[in-house]
Amino acid sequence: MVNLNAVLLISFALFSIGIVGVLIRRNALVILMCVELMLNAANLNFIAFARHSGSVSGQAFALLVMGFAAAEVSVGLALVVALYRKRDTVQVDDINLLKG
Amino acid sequence: MEHFIETIGRNMFAIFGVMALGGAAVVVASRSAVHSVLAFLFAMLCIAGCFLALEAEFLGMAQILVYAGGIVVLFLFVVMLVEVTKAKQKEVFQLQSRYAIGAVLLGVAAFSAVFRKVIFGAASPQALVLRPDLAQGLKVAEQNAQAVSRGLFADYLLPFEILSVVLLVALVGAVVLAKTERV
Question: What is the ipTM for the molecules in this complex?
Answer without folding.
Answer: 0.93
